[in-house]
Each structure stands twice: as structure tokens, then as C-alpha cells.
């Protein structure tokens, strides 16, 4: 099984938060991750905003290693247009709509989405995606 992982799930691997252990367990149970290109920005900014210099360096390096093994969906014109459509239908915020469109591009509704973002989880379920986490 391959998992679509959003930023809320990935961030939990590098920054100690509620449910970090759950996110790690889910993600490490499946070595094949996919996400949208914008996830890099979201995760890297979260690491730099939440951690001190020493922790930030370690967390950034760990994220970079994980990123190298993650299949990344390009946010091309088609994905962005689909994100707009999905955002209109579900009421999802911009970045969440991009996650939905990227997940759809990567595997369609058969691809489970790992998220700890309740709003994204609700939008994904309304479209027929399986959701792990939220």
C-alpha cells in the first residue's frame, strides 16, 4: 500500500506534538509515501518556526532524507485547476485543496491520505478518500 501524506502528518516526525507516535507508526509501516510539492515548504517552515537551532538542524536533515524517498506530485496547471475545483466543492482551504488534487493525481480515491488536519480529513472523506489520522 502507498500512502499520501500531508504536512500535518510529516511534521509530527520531526517536531514532537500530540500524536507524533501515531504518525510515526503509520508512516513507518509503509515505506512508500507520496505527497504534493508544496509539502516541502509547509514542513520546512514548520520545522524552522518551532525548533531551536540545534534541533532544527537535526530535524531538517531527517526531513531531507525522507523527502528523497518520497514520490512528489508536481503542482502543474492541471493539478492546480483540479485543486480549485475540489476546493469549491468541499470548501477546503487552498493548501488542503492542493493536497486533495495531488492525492487524486497520484492514485485516486484508492490512495489513503494520512493527515492530522481535521478539516482536510473531512474534505477527503467527503470525496471518498480513506483517511488515516484525523
Describe it:
There is one protein chain. The protein has about 130 residues and is of the alpha/beta class. It has one domain (about 5-134): 3-Layer(aba) Sandwich (Rossmann fold). The chain has helices spanning about 5-15, 20-30, 40-50, 55-70, 75-90, 95-105, 120-125, and strands at about 5, 35, 70-75, 115, 130-134. The protein has a 5-stranded parallel β-sheet, with helices on both faces. Strand 4 (about 115), helix 7 (about 120-125) and strand 5 form a beta-alpha-beta unit. It is globular. The two termini are about 20 Å apart. The model has no long low-confidence stretch (mean pLDDT about 95).
List key phrases describing it.
Rossmann fold; five-stranded parallel sheet; alpha/beta; 12% strand
